[in-house]
Amino acid sequence: xxxxxxxxxxxTGAILPEIIVITTLLIVMIGDLIVGRAASxxxxxxxxxxxxxxxxxxxxxxxxxxxxxxFLGEYNSDNLSIVFRGIVALxxxxxxxxxxxxxxxxxxxxxxxxxxxxxxxxxxxxxSGADELVTVYVALETLSISSYLLTGYTKRDPRSNEAAxxxxxxxxxxxxxxxxxxxxxxxxSGGETNLSKISTQIGAAGLADSIGLVIALxxxxxxxxxxIAAVPFHQWTPDVYEGSPTPxxxxxxxxxxxxxxxxxxxxxxxxxxxxxxQWHFVMTTLAILSxxxxxxxxxxxxxxxxxxxxxxxxxxxxxxxxxxIGSDAGYASMxxxxxxxLFMNLGAFTCVILFTLRTGTDQISEYGGLYQKDxxxxxxxxxxxxxLGGIPPLAGFFGKLYIFWAGWQAGxxxxxxxxxxxxxxxxxxxxxxxxxxxxxxxxxxxxxxKNYPEISWNxxxxxPLQVGLVLTLVATTIAGILSNPLFTLANDxxxxxxxLQQAMQKPAIQVSHKVDRTPxxx
Length: 522
What we know:
Elements lengths: L2 H8 L5 H20 L1 H4 L3 H17 L8 E2 L4 E2 L2 H28 L3 H20 L3 H19 L6 H31 L6 H10 L6 H18 L7 H8 L2 H26 L4 H23 L5 H22 L2 H32 L15 H15 L5 H16 L2 H26 L8 H4 L11 H20 L2 H12 L2 H8 L17
Helix pairs in contact: 2-4, 2-6, 4-5, 5-6, 5-12, 5-15, 5-20, 5-21, 6-7, 6-12, 7-8, 7-12, 8-10, 8-11, 9-12, 10-12, 10-13, 11-14, 12-14, 12-15, 13-14, 13-18, 14-15, 14-17, 14-18, 15-16, 15-17, 15-20, 15-21, 16-18, 16-20, 17-18, 17-20
């Protein structure tokens, strides 16, 4: 193989956004070593945000590329991966905005936090397009190990240490289970690691009905379910969310979850078409458990971070409806919901960070009467929570409407009805927080709000937090009213991805009930 042929097969341009993020990471690391901690904190976060936005812009030039396959089939830069990589990059950029003041106030190094966060971002972006077992596992571990480090980053906080230890132990177990499942796939396929060739080889060997393939499926789904925090693999979520630095929780709830769903689509659709009915059944069960437990247990929470933890479990259940449907509209509804979930969930966590910085608490009862002291924070948190609950005309309403409409078209009536019921339950605990902030009389104001400090955006690191707050507030509001471009983008990312279209045309992977494959335009 000559050099020109090798370069063509590597197709390095397909990972241009990842190269930009890696370059940004190296510059931040080297710059911090050269100028020192005090000086680097003044420019490294803004440089990191610039690098992430540049990488996000580079994704535009990869849309509908004629040569998406890179690195000898190990990476697929198709349109679906581009959307998920964009979600991961944007979530990291917004996370940095909300992190600057928080990390500096905790007394830890900001540049090191950025380095680990950018490493997690690279892992999530590679995971979104990985098309080979080794690449999948390396990208997954890059994201996971960075997440463990971020979780325990505030070393002086015992809760952060406890959260990191729990996350590490449970994460290591799930990683081992996932690896065992992929090793079974490797053996059953006769030594294949490329996802698109695994099912072909297993079918050719007559192992479509083997117990080994079912065991591999169960183990792989267990690893994926841990990453997306689906019940019953959610045990780590409430404790890790409560003990971790809040900006880290924000990234885990959006960036890491989006990468997990990208992996779920690519791995289940490409490597397990011979057992489609089985994984549809398993994912349906996980979706039901996640929607019910996540939303019901959230009713009893007294901490905002734990409430948002169980909320994220319930939201994962809603998104899994699109995966179970297995149609163009189903996958597109997943993509659309994750795009708007980026804004409304990060907006909610931005508000929690701001309130915690000013009061030192995240207890829901301490939000009583907040509107009298901080109208902007009250408005932003109310909009984001109501959007998460699916109140029209906010973005979350259209996201759930799209998922439920796609499910109804596909004949998944029980899932849709359960989703509607649990959405009503979720509205109750979201509105409870809004009521706490708005309805309280002056004499019922909480102690934290009574001692609320004077609002000042001129303190170091507060201006980026304000920008993040306003951006997420505006995006959550506008994305609902002007949602058609996002609908179109979500539909195009599915209908123009050959992997999904080929999978849905194979008779072996048709779902057991009739499915309408027509994309939905609302």
